[in-house]
Amino acid sequence: MSDEPKKPAGGGRAAHRPKKADAPLIDYNELDKLLVFGEVVPVDPEHGGGTAVVYPSYRDLGRRYGIAASVISEYAKTHNTMRRRERAKLRTQARVEEKLVERRAEAIALSKEEEVEIIDTYLAGFKAALADNRVRYDSPADYNTMARLKEFLLGGADSRAETHGILSLEQLQARHRDMQRTMIEASPAERGEVVALPASTLPVERPEDGVSQEDAAPVEDGDG
User: Fold this and answer.
1) Contacts of 188 (CB under 8 A, 6+ apart)
2) Which residues contact 212 (CB under 8 A, 6 or more apart)?
3) Quick one: which of 138, 140, 111, 117 has its CA closest to 127?
4) 137-193: per-residue pLDDT in tens?
5) Cβ within 8 Å of residue 38, ≥6 positions away
6) Distance between CA 81 and CA 75 in Å, rounded?
7) pLDDT at 221
8) What are phi and psi for residue 120, nearest 5 degrees?
9) Distances (CA, A) of 216 to 202, 211, 220
């Protein structure tokens, strides 16, 4: 009697080899999203709380789906998931910044809207007081101030005039550097400096009459 193990009936696969029907089922759409976009997980409250996006490793995904990590690696390579992940990160960051800018702009708009409403309320009260003769007609300083403030908040002419009339720190520094360069390159006469003349260039006086040669009157030929 032979001791060799019996082959399965029909000459099929060995008894220990799994059947194709027993192979793990993989949701490749979910796998692709995990590789490209990651997954959102909660953050420990001790580290700030909230949520964060993490990208499972090939080994973790292999254990999760019951397959070898090399299968995950081959899928990622074939479908170019790493490059797609970087592009997705850039798009996500751009959207986050856009949302932050929108919220900031909305907060500023609401703040200005409230300020304009307060000014409108003041102007309406001023108008009512004016109708009741409770304010002077020849002293509209407060009204003028509030009207200009409203124009400023709405981006009117007053705001443009105020903004354009102010020099920035960079402009002031540039003007100072230009002035220093001009003073260095200018001559002493241009700077208004008084230069002492050497003794050799001074006029010489004659001892007999005390009159300098330059001051002596010229001798004219004539009858007298």
Assistant:
1) 195
2) 203, 204, 205, 206
3) 140
4) 665 677 777 778 778 777 765 544 444 456 677 878 888 788 877 777 777 766 666
5) 53, 54, 55, 56, 85
6) 8
7) 52
8) -60, -40
9) 15, 6, 12
The two tokens of residue 25 are 């089922």
Q: What are phi and psi of 222, to 5 degrees?
A: 180, -175
How distant, in Å, are the alpha carbons of 72, 185, 187 from that of 175? Answer: 64, 15, 20
Residues ≥6 apart with Cβ < 8 Å to 88: 36, 37
Task: Compute the distance between CA of residue 147 and CA of residue 119 in angstroms, rounded to an integer.
Answer: 8
Residue 118 CA, chain-centre distance (Å), reads 32
60 closest CA partner among 37, 35, 97, 87:
35
- Report the predicted TM-score, pTM, of the whole model to 2 decimal places: 0.39
Q: What is the pLDDT of residues 30-60, one digit of tens each?
A: 999 999 999 988 888 887 778 888 999 999 9
In this structure, what token pair is assigned to residue 126? 């001023």
Report the alpha-carbon distance of residue 72 to residue 60 in Å, rounded. 10
Residue 54 DSSP symbol: E
The b/e string for 66-85 (b: 16+ C-beta within 10 A; e otherwise) is ebeeebbeebbeeeebeeeb
- Neighbour-count burial of 199, counting CB atoms closer than 10 A to its CB (0-12 exposed, 13-18 middle, 19+ buried): exposed
What three-state secondary structure class fits 130?
helix
